[in-house]
Design goal:
The N and C termini lie close together (7 Å). With 281 residues, the protein is α+β, with helices and mostly antiparallel strands. The protein has an 18-stranded mixed sheet that branches. It has helices spanning 30-37, 76-90, 178-186, 224-236, and strands at 2-10, 13-19, 47-52, 60-66, 96-97, 100-102, 105-111, 117-122, 145-149, 152-160, 164-169, 196-204, 207-214, 218-220, 243-248, 251-257, 264-268, 271-279. Helix content is 16%, strand content 41%.
């Protein structure tokens, strides 16, 4: 089967976008998606994103398959790419806003005049049962709680942005052996649905440096939901302001936790890389 696709990236977090508006089910399987994401034998990407028909009072539905063949609830960088892809499919330019149905709820990305995409990411979920994690009682928050990983104790804060995040603050984020330690966090027994893990260096209260190990994708250049979760963790622990720049290996995101609304807003780029046709067997 020949499938047309477009390749986009948000700060180097890259995705294969597929127009799936004629079917309520993704056109490729989890196994096929993993093959497409292979950087040696496929197109190469952190995930495959499908634009499906709307559900309820939304404009479209988003599904995403990770490069390891799993399905996450949502992706912050991915939904910015999705907004740009939809605008291209519609043949529109300039400012445009969408309501997108995801497994994490309704997310609202808005393409701005300067081409950046600002996303209303909703309210963070902070209770252990919502993450989910067994690090605290189900109805308690997990803030600076000790967790033993790789033979040492880490103070971790857990936040769900519709998907689970474990955040820990470090002196030097560049010194973290991410490739070896990331999987140990992801698959730790206290996270029954696994977890994304963010290592954060506070440069200033309004500027954070972040490296991320993404559940199902491994080391990536950026993670939008992770940047949002990390800002929330920084505010909860008194380390940062509710509006800050988050520096990721792939570039900068502007994150704001509105104290009036309790909602998280993420602003950043999304760029088309190339388009083509692939044969799925």
């Amino acid at each position: 089967m020949a499938i047309e696709f477009s390749k986009y990236h948000g700060l180097g977090n890259d995705f294969i976008l597929i127009d799936n508006r004629t079917s309520a089910e993704p056109l490729v399987t989890l196994e096929e998606a993993a093959k497409l994401c292979d950087r040696h034998f496929g197109i190469g990407a952190d995930g495959v994103i499908f634009v499906l028909p709307a559900e309820g009072d939304t404009d479209y539905t988003m599904r995403i398959y990770n490069s390891d063949g799993s399905e996450p609830e949502m992706c912050g960088n991915g939904i910015r790419c999705l907004a740009k892809f939809i605008a291209a499919l519609e043949g529109v330019s300039g400012e445009r806003q969408y309501r997108i149905h995801t497994l994490a709820g309704v997310i609202a990305p808005a393409i701005q005049r300067d081409g950046q995409v600002r996303v209303d990411m909703g309210q963070p979920q902070l209770l252990a049962a919502q993450i989910p994690t067994t690090l605290a009682a189900a109805d308690a928050k997990v803030v600076d709680v000790p967790l033993q990983v790789a033979g040492q104790s880490w103070a971790v804060t857990c936040v769900s942005m519709g998907n689970p995040h474990c955040i820990t603050f470090v002196e030097d984020v560049a010194a973290i052996p991410l490739e070896s330690i990331g999987p140990q966090f992801e698959h730790h027994a206290v996270f029954p649905q696994r977890t994304n893990t963010e290592f954060i260096e506070v440069v200033r209260p309004d500027y954070l440096k972040m490296r991320v190990w993404e559940r199902g994708a491994g080391i990536t250049l950026a993670c939008g939901t992770g940047a949002c979760a990390s800002l929330v963790a920084g505010v909860l622990t008194g380390r940062c302001q509710p509006k800050a720049t988050v520096e990721l290996p792939g570039g900068l995101l502007e994150i704001e936790w509105s104290q009036a609304e309790g909602r998280i807003y993420m602003t950043g780029p999304a760029e088309l890389v190339f388009a083509g046709t692939v044969i799925c067997h």
